[in-house]
Fold:
Amino acid sequence: MGFRGIFGKFVQRLVPLLCGLRCGKAGQNDVQMEKRMKIVVFTGAGVSADSGLATFRDADGLWANYRIEEVCTPEALQYNRAKVIDFYNLRRRELLEKEPNAGHYAIAELEKWFDVEVITQNVDNFHERAGSGRVIHLHGELTKLRSSRNPDLICPIEGWEQPLDARAADGALLRPHIVFFGEAVPEFERAAGIVPGADLMIVVGTSLAVYPAASLVHCLRPDVPIYLVDPGRPDTALIRNPLTHIKARSAEGLPALVERLRGQYAERQDASEGRTTTCG
Structure:
């Protein structure tokens, strides 16, 4: 058995344990949402690429002039702070010049008919700007900074430029609120606690190759359908759920999928609850 097979079996055994770590008491909003079909949307860089935002897999763009080891590791921040801060300032400036695309807006539109949670590997704020109400950022957020000493001391940044010597309230130097390679993913446990409650999952714009994030698909109940929107060939070898692969870019495939789900599920929900849906 090759490494992929061994690792896959390890993930399949470990992730169900992680998925059961979080449980809580349902609040009033949770009870209301239980009446609606729950959709978890898991997004990656491909969603934001349609807005013209460069990803680290691109051969051109902002990442073309930097190696990941130079700007996206704890060691880089320690030994070459100026280069790291400058890089994320440039990324932040690029983000402020771009807008959400049709894919982001389609995801936000789902909330009209469904109970929606977005789990994203992206560090931009396009989901929020498009109108999504509940978004978990697994890998941090460009529009925030945090203390180098206390990871829970987080603050927003106005504009795009972080001064090199800016300090947090505890006196420590501020750093980008980004999960660097080699660091723990603090929001993973929260995300893993949400996925098992999904009635349907949409996976879009991700290679399903970055762990632990990619293992979230294994938190689903085995009968829950997955809709994969991606023009390429993400790694689906370990997925055992019913899978529909829509081979299209996010900005094209998501609006069509939302209309499909609305017709297939939302109108059925309205009929069962005695409501009338008006299309227009």
Residues 1-12, 21-33, 276-280 have pLDDT under 50 and may be disordered.
